Amino acid sequence: MSSKISLVSCLIVLAFGVVLANGSRENGGLGIYEIKSGDFSVKVTNYGARIVSVVLPDKHGKLADIVLGYDTIKEYMNDSSYFGAIVGRVANRIGGAKFTLNGTTYKLDANEGSNMLHGGKKGFSQVPWKVLNHRKTGRSPSITLTYHSVNGEEGFPGDVVASVTYALLKPYKLSVKMKAKALNKATPVNLAQHSYWNLGGHNSGDILSDELQIFASHITTVDDHLIPTGKIVPVKNTPYDFRKPLVIKGPIKQLPNGSIGFDINYAVDGHDGLKMKPVAVVYNKKSGRVMKLSANAPGVQLYTGNFVNTTGKGGFAYKTHAALCLETQGFPDSVNHPNFPSVIVAPGKAYEHCMMFTFSTKK
Questions:
Q1: Distance, CA of 92 to chain centre
Q2: Is the confidence at residue 74, as pLDDT, over 60?
Q3: What pLDDT sits at residue 206?
Q4: Which residues are annotated as catalytic?
Q5: Average pLDDT in the 10-33 region?
Q6: Taking Cα atoms as reference points, which of 196, 200, 149 lies closest to residue 51?
């Protein structure tokens, strides 16, 4: 991490105060907020609009936190894995950190070699969001957070107001709704929720024995720097074929960047831009937990934590493959591939990205 980013993080700590492990706040700026329904609870911080924890029972009724993260917000300020964050203004990679829109070429903040990843060095994940409302318990536990991204931020044109609402629905459903409006210029918007899931518990080891199904028949192929080539190819007869439930470690492979695992965008079957579609199912046999994901986005990035190596909640050492991410999204680098679904939002037009996580157990 650059010294510039470290300085920004220090200034934020001074301005907003340190959040302690129990979720209390100092100076009233940054905080950790809980929404709870019975034995199902989610904690969120307004630093990066991040999911901090998701706690629910296993097949024996034993509670566990099933997302990776940290005990304090100060630790999230030094996080390079985007644990639990809303990433944007444009999630995933933009090749060459530039794009052309309406005859103007925009040079963006390159933070992964010559490319942009998840909105640049700062992006939406490394800024304070404003809490609009918070209903901790009751019939509709929820929290809504918002962020105003100004013209030129990370190189993007125009002002954008983004929001995310996390809500608990019965039984054991987590709804995530991401919205955005372009205020004065057409601009790309592609928000993603970047939680790292381990259904056995955040401190239970790797996810390689989990069973995964992805409702997608095609992927967007990438080059050696994981930038899309523009081709959309079938998964049939490739290691990427999870159309039927499959244990993750079975087809696991070495990627062009040298890591072992998966880091690829799938084109969700049946996407029409409006309706929620089944995206994926994950099953952890030991705990019996099942997570079903549906969304209205055209793509989903499967990432198997190939570079995870940090100390997380409770001092537990998170290692490679400690969790998986299922980031529903617009296709990566769509701004440079006209054949991909557009992520351009014009002034006055609404962007809405909805996800539903449905949790259950089986023996």
A1: 10
A2: yes
A3: 97
A4: 194, 327
A5: 51
A6: 196
The DSSP letter of residue 223 is: -
Q: What are phi and psi of 13, to 5 degrees?
A: -60, -45
Quick check: 17 and 26 in contact, CB under 8 A?
Answer: yes
Q: Is the pLDDT of residue 7 over 60?
A: no
CA–CA dist 202, 51 (Å, integer): 13
For 84, how many CA atoms within 13 A lie in the half-sphere containing its CB?
Answer: 31
Phi, psi torsion values for 155, nearest 5 degrees: 100, -5
**CA–CA separation, 326 vs 193, rounded Å?**
8
Structure tokens at 131: 């809490």
The answer on pLDDT for 252 being more than 90 is no
**Torsion, CA 45, CA 152, CA 183, CA 187, rounded to 10:** -100
Q: Residue 274: its pLDDT value, please?
A: 80
pTM comes to 0.92
CB-based contacts of 264: which residues, under 8 Å, 6+ apart?
Answer: 219, 220, 222, 240, 301, 302
Task: For residue 245, say if its preceding peptide bond is cis, omega within 30 degrees of 0.
Answer: no
Q: Over the stretch 293-306, which tens digit does the pLDDT of each residue have? A: 999 999 999 999 99
Cα 144 from Cα 134, distance rounded (Å): 7
The residues facing 361 across adjacent strands are 289
